[in-house]
Amino acid sequence: MNQQPEEFLYVVDLKNCFDVGVSAGQQEFSWDEFKELLLTHRFRNKKDGEGFMPVMMKHESEWQLVYPQQKPGKVQPPPHYRGDINIEAITALVIDLDKPGALAQAEELFAGYEYCVHSTHTYSKPQPYKFRMILRLHEPILVEDWPSCFESLKTRIDLDVSCCNPSRFYYYPSHNKENSDIKPKSYHRPGSAISMDDILAMAVEQEAVVKAGRAVKFKLPSAHKHVPLVHFTGAPVSRFDAVPDQADMSWAAQYERNKESIDHYRLQGSNHNLALTITARELGKMGPKTDIKSMLLFIFQVANHEGNKPIETGNTMNEIPGFIVTGMWKYARELYEKLEHEHTDVVAWLSSLVNWAYLSYKTERLPEPKPVQDPIAMTTTEDTRTAYAVLKDRHRSFLREFIATGDAKLLLKQVLQHELKSASPKYDDLASALTNYLIGYQTEVLKVPALQGWTSLQLETGNLGRMFSDKMVDADQKKLTFAKSAFLIHLMQRMPDEVKKASLPASPALA
To answer: What is the reported pLDDT for 386?
Structure first.
């Protein structure tokens, strides 16, 4: 940490609450200059007027468009860049104090720190407790750390909890001309600049603050690291090939996938982070097969069911299209390219979907859970289905790992060690099951044509056959020999004649 507090701070000045010209509004003030602006009241009849956002914006090259909420019967406002998604850090700590006794609470809590206080436009004789406090920060607070700080403050002060979003607009001090019977108030208290650590240390409920974001911060799911697969035909193999074309988008399934985001949401109440992390997680898991409509319904329904305020009450609705585009560029570029071909303006189309979700989420139901279809089982014949079902159930954990990794040698090792423990193994059933597993992976997981899948198996027969050895598998060698014979015989019986004669490079998926 720097020994001296920041001398200058970034602020975005705006003409009124509807002004979205954040590019032109960016200012750099000294603390003393900013302090004078906070101590000078403007007199007007209406509340609306000039104001500020105490923030440092991201570099303009990183800005993402925010699409305003579409209102039926009204002209759609133009997209803009005034939104949480384009903010780097908070540069001044602004607290709205709208309840009796809240100012005294804040003054006691921040004794020794430097701050300004001014009465707000609604300050009057009937409401002589409407104030705003602005504290000098030792250094800017990054947006990802802000939820923890706000949670800490909530435990000590009766503040306005709606003023939690980083892009919050605050009016410069003003006083209603009609309230001439009471004078506005403003004053400055010298002291130390407050740091993020100071704020977090104030919390009564430290555990809640930790969970809200500092020690367990919100993080986008990192892009899955994987070695790109190339099929023996030379065609790329996507890591999303194993994702069902119709993924389970029921409430229960999405809830389970996004449980971490929902647990944080209960603590933070941040609609922004809820929408951001769910869109990133769903796109990270489902890629181009993401069901965007069902995902949006789920986000709205979670906020309505689990939170204190629906999504539509703040700016989050306007930011969701940007979250989705960012997620697609990170995890599902092919989905973005597909949507570009289908829609003139992808972000505008996403904005219309968000508006549909807003209008529909209270009545529209998410899809019913669908039974998971085992892709390996799809290649079995009716006369072997009963025996195969028994083996498949015993091998379920092995199959899940095989579908995820494509490691055929590991599958054979696990299955053989498990089945050959029996005093009287059923070699024919075991051979049939292994063949089904291997060809099922080729045709149903890698999505290659049947002839190509069988060709890959035929060319890997030698490598797979070497697994039937007590040096490779912890089992009796005599049983392994019988199992190998049954497997090779079954494999050749099932293999199409034209494949037996083919000679093509082997698939690395089974190497």
So the answer is: 57
